[in-house]
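B., you asked whether I could sanity-check this one before it goes into the benchmark set. Here's the sequence:
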Amino acid sequence: MYIASGGKRRDSWAGVAIYRAAKKAISYQVIHMNDLRVFNDQVLHGDHFLCAWERQKDLFVGSLLSLLRINPEILDMMPSLDDLISVVHFGITPDGGEETGERVIRGRIPGIEDDDILLFWGGVIIN
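And here's what the prediction gave me:
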């Protein structure tokens, strides 16, 4: 990008940076609006929702309220909303938990020894 200054043309990196920042902000807004549309569509059409903790349940309750899926009649029928949203905890306790029952992987599957470290990944990596 060139800017005229005193009759001379000079390269303006500031102008390029501003243009790129504006373009990136617009693309983030488009991505956000699409994600919000998809989430709202799922909340509008879902019959039952699973969440991992109470705070996530609050997110679903707020979303359901804003999309008019929860109203006073529904709250009268099921005040806790357990028939609509279930909290299913996963993971381990903060103190690390304790072993219970028999082992199902370590020492039982060929190539995985008793002292091997196991990592279970239940998600994705996104940019």
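One thing to flag: The radius of gyration is 26 Å. Otherwise nothing jumped out at me.
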